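Subject: Interface between my chains keeps coming out wrong

I've been trying for a while to get a sensible model of this assembly. When I model each chain on its own everything looks fine, but I need the whole thing in one frame so I can look at the contacts. Pasting all components below, labels as-is. Any help appreciated, I'm running out of ideas.
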Amino acid sequence: MKLPSSPIILIVLLTISINAVIPISAHFYPNASSIPPSAIPNKTSWDEFNNFTGCNKGVKAYGLHKLKKYFEYFGYLNNSYGNFSDEFDGSLEDAVKIYQLNFNLNTTGALDEPTLKHIVQPRCGNADIVNGTSTMHSGRMFSANSTIHAVAHYSFFPNRPRWPRQRSQLTYAYSPDNPLSDAVRGVFSRSFERWSEVTPLTFSETTSYSRADIRIGFYIGDHGDGEPFDGVLGTLAHAFAPTVGRLHLDGDENWIIDGDFLNSSPYSAVDLESVAVHEIGHLLGLGHSSVEEAIMYPTISSGTRRVELSNDDIMGVQELYGSNPNYNGSNPTLTPRGERDRNVAHVLGSSSWIVLVVGIFSLLVLFF
Ligand SMILES: [Zn+2]
Ligand SMILES: [Zn+2]
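Reply #2:
Try treating it as a single job with all components included. I did that and got this:
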């Protein structure tokens, strides 16, 4: 190819080619029943893990190295020893035990049926364990009232990154490579609102993709950040910690826009709003939670919808940013840790009085 002689013309041509709009054919459907049968796969890449049902330490099973890669991807194993083998070794057993703990399963260390059922579920591509530290099952105690106690499991990225106080009015934009319909943009706008309702943060759409705080795009396979997508189901999306602001979704999924799974819920249908609300949690600084009802729980079955922030999510995000002044706290069960300690002290105080009164009464009986 003959190159243009003028460097200015060359730069202009290069700029045009880099910015050329390459549409990504993400699949959006108004509801689950509108997915054509041809778009519904028979199986996904993780389904073959079901062949390992019943495997435990000491056995060798063909293909087990792929499951080790899965555990490495989500932070449960490290690959400092080179290639993974097909041996069920001690480090895989440890990884399975931590996974079971994070997902509230019996910690058998074996690939029993309930564990594999979780492993093959579609999920967020962000790791559960970052830098070798699992915070998913951190088990902070908080008091719902003076008698009932629940456990909070929200987590943060290492060093708790958050958007700085002076950047509470955040902007977002969609990749110019993915022209999106109003209906799809509406899903993201509703998802942002769920987080702004409970925090002082605001989110507004901007047309300037390069200057937006949060940049949203649909990608297929390897898209340049070392976290390739894997086709239908498997990993659905991933998002980066503050203040990177990148939210990537798998363009190969069958995304459902209106959350309607009433008449049909084919195996591959994924609710876009459920995934968007979860990924925005990451953009704000939240990690994964082991509370199954929480938005920040890592897996979501296809054909299901989970869009309401749970107490666990609200407590987590408010620990980073505080509450929205207009938030009426429709979840009165949220009690900061300091207050919990006071409640516990109060309960202990009451018991001490009872012990004292019973003691004095016993002494009186003894003497008289
Ligand atoms: Zn996630
Ligand atoms: Zn990505």
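Reply #3:
Confirming on my end. The CA atoms of residues 97 and 109 lie 5 Å apart.
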